[in-house]
């Protein structure tokens, strides 16, 4: 096992601990009742997008594949479970030999989704598939929430680069996954070294107010930074007085100064003022980077301002108001017996309090209008109509327990750009509204 | 190094990667300008509580101590930094020998805090202290956000136990920290095996709708579960028809059935109806557990309902609307030279856009009224007045690089109960309002 493939910047013995206890007690009961080996189909989907959002973004798929591959109950974990007295010996023995040997299909990473989209489908015995519920949902719910926010910010930013700098606002390892998701959603770089280490995302960074305050004068601080990092560096100009700082910055670094960063105040006003000042000082190529609690709306409001790059932290890693998706993992079909050829029967919880689900294994495709623009997410349980046969949204991810869909992160990033471009124009609106595609039952 | 102490259920070579790149480039520049060894004081504080919240809860302190202790640049990390070309050789050499040798003071875990409270103070050379910014903020911002939500839920739940079950709604490792923070804030157990493994938090779990749907009838499913787990188990009764399920559950398990769980529908109505039915069936001791997107308000609304326990997921791990705190890590004082006895000079960013901070190393204490109830958070930079000398809020956490404040998680949990009990009654109101204590500058 290559632990560097676990989606973490750390060594992990197994992802099997990322499991809710009831999955194991259900396993024990199913082993006892003789239903554990019934062939089962679980699907990941969401009943709704976050309020006002036009589309969702699938992210975390690559991390799910790593997690499934490394989902093993080693002696440490088994010892813990034994000590707790949660499970009987038969169940512990079964877990000792566990590895997922079934199939997983799903929307490829970066694809967009809508309410009811069958985002991922896990097929295997009940026993092997039920155990993956928590880890799959953890990853997809977190990563997709961040990617959705990132995508909206990328739309708002247009051609200007976005820097992810939210590590300090979320759990230290969630931050690494957030950087990854932000990259899928359209960000360009990260301040987080762990994300650079693990996912090879470009890393950037300049200085904080503390660096200026450490020195006896702002000029000393700027000189120290330029001496150490070159005139291409980014100087932080809002520790005391912005106008004075910009003047000092160009004096110290020369007109070849890489960039200045503004981290507080009226960014719109300051960007215009600083641009004018830089131009007057001959620093026409010096870029302006803005940071300071930006979200997609703040980014959009700076579209007409002379801003060259945005650094985004809190609102990115917290999904801009929606820190999690509401994806669920539901049994939609299962066999009546554990015979290998037993037919699958659709199953579903009865409607109650809005938690109904549609039984049956699903296919899905995006119906296009005559201009090639998506007009509906079509989801069906029967045979796939000929017009959609070659254009199903789900692709094979795992076959017989073997991962078959590894890809570089850039592939997901490019796929997202293409998928978003295939949506109606209204998808790019930041204003609240309905899902931009209706989901139709075929 | 005991990797089990890292706050993760996994082996980690070092926490030093959980760092924003600018901390390293600032280090390089400070080494070059000769300011790196200036004695410096950084403080963690927040300018505001989340809107409407009455108090904050410090959580994650124990994880910060683990992170600081294991913050080392091993050859893998140094090789990565070297390859990226981010740093010069002198800086890389410096990092190779890094370990934090300074002092850390802070509010003990579980304590409450207010805007301006000096939650943590890191003292050392600029070089050694600046590097800890991101990892300290990541941990405190995430964990304290979850603990604050947990505390409000615990107030709403009164004597009824709260079960943390949000792992599927957040990053798989953030989930482990969230369970820990929920426990500090007043939760009783978790569904997350990793949290049980790592922090010895009691784990619980029963079954999902999929388990019922796997079987040929609800009765078969209940029988399977009771056979495997005993009649003390919790049966999920809302897959089809609740009334019928409750009848079947008691028939199968007998009146000694442990509990039933309701996961959808009108919980208030259903709880009353199910209680009455259970009583009529002689299952007077069978408990009712409710789950389904609960938050502190939903919990409070069920106060008069015959509910025995609450399971909380999404809203807990996402901080009930506030998934992060706004804690910052600011240089508040530093020496003018690197002489060991150089006096500390207060420093602060100039006010602009609300990001001003108060310079100088701070002490704090809680002023009590004649009944022993807290009436103000007093924060000062000068000598500590005699009345507060013995009652400062901050305690030593690290001395000369050695952790001096390890404690069991239960100590933090009990401290939080006591700290909350010392606040004015209005702290327990769930309604939006101002911080329940004013912060006064002494």
TrEMBL record, chains A, B:
Pathway: Cofactor biosynthesis; NAD(+) biosynthesis; nicotinate D-ribonucleotide from nicotinate: step 1/1
Pfam families registered for this protein in UniProt: NAPRTase_N
Record field: catalytic activity: 5-phospho-alpha-D-ribose 1-diphosphate + nicotinate + ATP + H2O = nicotinate beta-D-ribonucleotide + ADP + phosphate + diphosphate
Family listed: Belongs to the NAPRTase family.
Keyword Glycosyltransferase part of the UniProt annotation: yes
Protein's UniProt name: Nicotinate phosphoribosyltransferase
Keyword hit for Transcription: no
EC number: 6.3.4.21
UniProt PTM comment: Transiently phosphorylated on a His residue during the reaction cycle. Phosphorylation strongly increases the affinity for substrates and increases the rate of nicotinate D-ribonucleotide production. Dephosphorylation regenerates the low-affinity form of the enzyme, leading to product release.
Organism whose genome encodes this protein: Streptomyces chrestomyceticus
InterPro entries in the record: Aldolase_TIM, NAPRTase_N, Nic_PRibTrfase-Fam, Nic_PRibTrfase_pncB, Nicotinate_pribotase-like_C
Record-linked PANTHER family: NICOTINATE PHOSPHORIBOSYLTRANSFERASE (PTHR11098), NICOTINATE PHOSPHORIBOSYLTRANSFERASE PNCB1 (PTHR11098:SF8)
One MF term in the entry's GO annotations: nicotinate phosphoribosyltransferase activity
Function noted in UniProt: Catalyzes the first step in the biosynthesis of NAD from nicotinic acid, the ATP-dependent synthesis of beta-nicotinate D-ribonucleotide from nicotinate and 5-phospho-D-ribose 1-phosphate.
Keywords: Glycosyltransferase, Ligase, Phosphoprotein, Pyridine nucleotide biosynthesis, Transferase
Residue intervals of the Nicotinate phosphoribosyltransferase N-terminal domain: 17-141
């Amino acid at each position: 096992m290559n632990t560097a493939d676990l989606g973490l910047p750390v060594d992990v013995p197994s992802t099997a601990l990322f499991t809710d206890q009831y999955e194991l007690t259900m396993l024990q009961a199913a082993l006892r009742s003789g239903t554990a080996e019934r062939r089962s189909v679980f699907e990941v989907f969401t009943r709704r997008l976050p309020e006002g959002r036009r589309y969702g973004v699938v992210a975390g798929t690559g991390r799910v594949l790593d997690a499934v591959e490394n989902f093993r109950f080693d002696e440490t974990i088994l010892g813990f479970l034994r000590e707790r007295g949660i499970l009987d010996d038969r169940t512990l023995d079964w877990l000792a030999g566990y590895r997922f040997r079934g199939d997983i299909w799903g929307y490829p990473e970066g694809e967009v989704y809508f309410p009811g989209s069958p985002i991922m489908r896990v097929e295997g015995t009940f026993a092997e598939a039920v155990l993956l519920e928590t880890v799959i949902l953890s990853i997809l719910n977190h990563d997709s929430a961040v990617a959705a926010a990132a995508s909206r910010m990328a739309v708002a930013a247009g051609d200007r680069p976005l820097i992810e700098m939210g590590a300090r606002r979320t759990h230290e390892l969630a931050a690494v996954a957030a950087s990854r998701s932000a990259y899928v959603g359209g960000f360009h770089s990260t301040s987080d070294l762990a994300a650079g280490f693990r996912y090879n995302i470009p890393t950037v960074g300049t200085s904080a107010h503390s660096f200026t305050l450490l020195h006896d004068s702002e000029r000393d601080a700027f000189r120290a930074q330029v001496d150490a990092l070159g005139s291409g560096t980014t100087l932080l100009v809002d520790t005391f007085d912005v106008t004075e700082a910009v003047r000092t910055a160009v004096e110290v670094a020369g007109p070849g100064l890489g960039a200045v960063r503004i981290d507080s105040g009226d960014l719109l006003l300051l960007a215009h003022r600083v641009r004018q000042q830089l131009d007057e000082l001959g620093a026409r190529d010096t870029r302006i980077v803005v940071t300071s609690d930006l979200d997609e709306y703040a980014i959009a409001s700076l579209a007409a301002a002379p801003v060259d790059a945005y650094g985004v932290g809190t609102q990115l890693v917290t999904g801009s108001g929606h820190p999690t998706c509401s994806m669920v993992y539901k049994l939609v079909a299962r066999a009546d017996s554990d015979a290998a050829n037993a037919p699958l029967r659709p199953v579903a919880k009865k409607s109650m309090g809005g938690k109904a689900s549609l039984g049956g294994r699903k296919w899905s495709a995006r119906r296009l209008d005559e201009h090639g623009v998506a007009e509906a997410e079509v989801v069906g349980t029967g045979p796939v109509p000929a017009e959609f046969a070659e254009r199903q949204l789900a692709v094979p991810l795992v076959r017989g327990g073997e991962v078959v869909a590894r890809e570089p992160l850039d592939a997901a990033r490019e796929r997202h750009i293409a998928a978003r471009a295939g949506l109606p124009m209204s998808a790019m609106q930041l204003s609240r509204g309905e899902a931009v595609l209706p989901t139709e039952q075929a």
